[in-house]
Amino acid sequence: MNNLQAVILAAGRGSRMCALTKDKPKCMLELLGKPLLHWQLESLHSAGINDILVVRGYKADLLNGNFKTIDNQRWAETNMVSSLQCALPSLKDKTIIISYADIVYSPRHVENLISAQGDICLTYDTLWQDLWAYRAEGTTDDILADAETFKQKDGRLIEIGKKPQSLDEVQGQYMGLIKLTPKGIQTLLDIFAELGQEKVDKLDMTSLLSLILDKNIAITTVPIVGAWCESDTQEDIQKYEKALQSKTWKHDWRM
After folding, report:
1. Rg for the chain, CA atoms, rounded
2. Theoretical Cys-Cys bridge with 162: which of 102, 149, 158, 191, CB 3.0 to 4.6 Å?
3. β-strand 4-10 against 52-56: which pairing, if any?
4. Ramachandran area for residue 86 (φ above 0: left; ψ -120 to 50: alpha; else beta)
């Protein structure tokens, strides 16, 4: 697919990492001795995507490499959706894979997403409870209070991002990987124009996905089983590095 491109949303600082991101963007924090961004680039390349755009913001000058860049100049006062908005106008003839900058994942998840049918598609982890439980070890976190609804039927998303009343309403975890065709990109651009910039600036990604559903626009769901993780805190990274020593961890993205 010659018009395939990836967009990595890397504008935020990652304030939950505290002092670790004082001098570098979150995506440059290391996991197993390699920056998170480099793991993403490797997986995207392995899945056949070599045209990659990184949306920069915090410490933008530190994000340079074998990829294109665009800057969200208002990164400190906006959310991830605004970073995506910065990239979309120049990509309207592309099919794009959107990736959060604080996740690592198997190339096969990207390959499955590329193959999925639909103008807006996303992956979700059916093994999410195992990952949540591991990250929550030693804390008082409550799984139901921490989770968000994710409901799908016959490969179509029907609800996302609400507070669940039971775990039956959480069929998986949205990972932060999305595919948009040119039609899907135009759908988002139309929504942004309708909302106006002030509302877009306050919009997070799951709220955007929920808004798309409210407009009866189809979102295809692509189930995966483990082989990915997200890093919100220093403790996450430490726990992952410990888990990877066993060589049997089901969320090992390198397998």
Report:
1. 17
2. 149
3. parallel
4. alpha
First to last CA, the chain: 25
Phi-psi category of residue 203: left, alpha or beta, with phi > 0 → left and psi -120 to 50 → alpha: beta
3-class SS letters over the chain: CCCEEEEEEECCCCHHHHHHHCCCCHHHCEECCEEHHHHHHHHHHHCCCCCEEEEEECEHHHCCCCCEEEECCCHHHCCHHHHHHHHHHHHCCCEEEEEECCEEECHHHHHHHHHCCCCEEEEEECCHHHHHHHHHCCCCCCHHHHCCCEEEECCEEEEECCCCCCHHHECCEEEEEEEECHHHHHHHHHHHHHHCHHHHHCCCHHHHHHHHHHCCCCCEEEEECCCEEECCCHHHHHHHHHHHHHCCCCCCCCC
The pLDDT value given to residue 2: 60
Cβ atoms 168, 160 nearer than 8 A: no
Closest CA to 64 of 53, 72, 75: 53
- The pTM score is 0.96
Dist. CA 177–CA 123, nearest whole Å:
6
